[in-house]
Amino acid sequence: MIRLPRSTRLSISAGWLLAILGTPAGAASIDPPNGQALLSTTASGVQIYSCEYDANHTLGWAFKSPRATLFDSAGVAVIEHSAGPSWEARDGSRIVGHVLAQMPSDAQNSVPQLLLEAHSTGAKGMLSDVRYVQRTMTAGGAAPKASCTAEHAAGSSPYIATYTFFK
C-alpha cells in the first residue's frame, strides 16, 4: 500500500469534492456550453437604478434595467439592449435572456461579467439563432456613488462591455 503525505491526501480530497459538488459559488464559468460565436459587439450605455427601501427599511440603490447600444466591429450600431434583459437588432429580431452564471469584473466598481441563456421573441433575423449571451470586459455600471435619499428617485451609471452572442 502506498501512503501519500497528508497534504496530498487533503488536496486530492478537495479535488474530488469539487468534482462531485461542482464549481464553488462566485467562481462559476461564464463560458457557454458548446456555443459557436455568431457575433461580438461593444456596448456603450448606462445601468439604471432606483432608490428603494430594503427589508431593513433602509434606502439604497436597486438595479432596475440596462440601456445600451451595441456596435459591431466596424463601429455600426446593430443592437439595442434594454430591460428584460433584452436585445433587439435593427432587423426586428429580438431575444430575451436570464442569467445562468456571473463572475466579478476585472475592473473595480463595475457590473459583473455574465452568461445568459436567451430565447427568440421577435422576427426572424440576426438574433434568431442566439441561445447564449456572454457579457465580458465590463467597466463601470455599478450603483451610483451619489447618496440615495428619496424613495423611487432614479440614478444611472455609465458602462461599457463586450457582448458576444452564441448559437
From TrEMBL:
Annotated coiled-coil segments of the chain: none
Signal is among the record's keywords: yes
Record key words, sorted: Signal
Annotated signal sequence range: 1-27
Protein's name according to its UniProt entry: DUF3455 domain-containing protein
Species for this entry: Paraburkholderia ginsengiterrae
